Amino acid sequence: MYAVVEIAGKQFRVEPDKNIKVPFLHAEPGQKVKFDKVLFFTDDKGKHHIGAPLVEKMNVEATVVEHGREKKVIVFKKKRRKGYRLKKGHRQNYTLLYIEKIAKARATRAKKATNGVEGEAKEA
Questions:
Q1: End-to-end alpha-carbon separation of the chain, Å?
Q2: Is pLDDT of 77 > 80?
Q3: Starting at the edge strand that comes first in sequence, how are the strands of the sheet with 2-7 ordered?
């Protein structure tokens, strides 16, 4: 079972009980997060569910494990015979997520209007 989910503007393939690195999310380590932008889903039987653009009533639940920084990327610019050289470095922040489950979203029941009295409907 796996799903393709949009997290922070990027698409990731997620599976239950796996860790993934995503762009930095403003959540504390240990906090649970839900992602409801599921674009594609494959169930245990191998049946594919393709969203148009999203798969209805599906979400992915995850826990934030830690925050960190990627390895340094060096940006070097040079123009020959001009004496121009520029060296910069960049480290991208990331969040490590533990995917707990891929599940159908629970339907919330709307309360029936009872005009302020619970258990009894107003008679006309």
A1: 53
A2: yes
A3: 10-14, 2-7, 38-42, 48-50
Residue 57 is inside which H or E element, if any? none
Are 33 and 25 in contact, with CB atoms under 8 Å apart? yes
- Beta strands (DSSP E) in 8-122 are 10-14, 18-23, 32-35, 38-42, 48-50, 58-69, 73-79, 84-90, 93-104
Tokens 């409907």: give the residue: 121
Among candidates 86, 85, 91, which has minimal Cα distance to 73? Answer: 91
In this model, does residue 111 exceed pLDDT 60? no
Task: Report the distance separating Cα 19 and Cα 63, nearest Å.
Answer: 10
Specify the pTM.
0.75
Instruction: State the DSSP code for 93.
Output: E
- What does the alpha-carbon distance between residue 11 and residue 6 come to, in Å, rounded to a whole number? 4
Token duo for residue 41 = 């889903």
